[in-house]
Amino acid sequence: MHQPAPFQHALDDAARQDERTRIARELHDDLGGNLIAIKMALARLSARLPADQSGLAGQAQYIDDLVERTIESVERISLGLRAAPLDLGLVAALAWLAREFTRQTGVAVTTHCPDTPAPAPAHADALFHIAQEALTNVAKHARATQVTLTLEREGGELTLSICDNGCGIDPAARTRPHAFGLRGMHERASALGGVLSLSAAPGGGTMLTVKIRLAPPVAPAQNKKQNE
Ligand SMILES: Nc1ncnc2c1ncn2[C@@H]1O[C@H](COP(=O)(O)OP(=O)(O)OP(=O)(O)O)[C@@H](O)[C@H]1O
Ligand SMILES: [Mg+2]
Q1: 159 CA to middle of ligand 2, Å?
Q2: For residues 178-201, b (16+ Cβ closer than 10 Å) or e, as one string?
Q3: Cβ-count burial of 126 within 10 angstroms (0-12 exposed, 13-18 middle, 19+ buried)?
Q4: Looking at the domain assignment, is residue 191 inside a domain?
């Protein structure tokens, strides 16, 4: 039987998460917006009730409480739908990040993540947050029209690279005292024994690369013990 490539699975997961995020957004924006409008209309109506209609005022208060509880439910349900992207694994989370970036900025991202092993959670977390800040920087500073995001294994190392075709990074800008993004990315990488580097991308633009050594695979005996 034909098995889709692992990246296809990751894309399917990312598409499902996209759908959940879209529903969460619509719940919050459409339903939430209408509920607020109902609450305001009810307040206007209540203000016009004659003073001797205390029964009607009580009913209006009851409806207002109900609307308030429904607003809270919408918030809770839409938050629940927005699963943490990393719950889906690093490759799916990166695919989701790339789509969100394109949705928000209109800049196309080509994602290339061949069958990479799942890194330890701390490594996945660091790589995801580095990719997030790198894409934010592309949106803020690069004036790019195309981004390539690659995650690949090279021997015992996992390499994440994000390459844009924008204006390139000014060497002086890398050490700006109030720029915390690059510093944070370097710190995240080095906390795990990894290395982050910036270089000029071929044809202009910026290439950011992070290399992190993969943790050695868990020995089968130890693995069995952990599962017991
Ligand atoms: N992809 C990029 N293309 C062009 N310039 C970039 C790119 N990424 C970073 N830069 C430059 O490097 C500087 C430092 O980036 P850094 O992320 O540290 O700070 P910042 O984005 O300005 O602020 P923040 O602290 O909010 O991240 C930026 O101000 C910008 O000039
Ligand atoms: Mg930044």
Answers
A1: 21
A2: eeebbeebbebbeebebebebeeb
A3: buried
A4: yes
The predicted pLDDT at position 115 comes to: 75
Instruction: Give the mutation target among 129, 130, 140 for probing the ligand 1 site: most ligand atoms within 8 A of CB.
Output: 140
Residue 226 has pLDDT above 80, yes or no: no
55 with 91, same domain: the answer is: no
pLDDT digits (tens, 9 = 90+) for 169-224: 988 877 776 778 999 999 999 999 999 999 999 888 999 999 999 876 555 454 44
What is the per-residue DSSP string for 167-186?
S---GGGGG-TT-HHHHHHH
Question: Which residue, by CA, sits nearest to atom 23 of ligand 1?
Answer: 179
User: Which of 55, 81, 107 marks a domain boundary?
Assistant: 81
- Which residue minimizes the CA distance to atom 9 of ligand 1? 137
Residue to substitute in 105, 109, 137 for testing ligand 1 pocket (most ligand atoms within 8 angstroms of CB) = 137
pLDDT in tens, 116-169: 878 898 999 999 999 999 999 999 999 999 999 999 998 889 999 999 999 999
Per the document, the length of the chain is 228
Q: Which atom of ligand 1 is nearest to the CA of 176?
A: 14
92 shares its domain with 184: yes
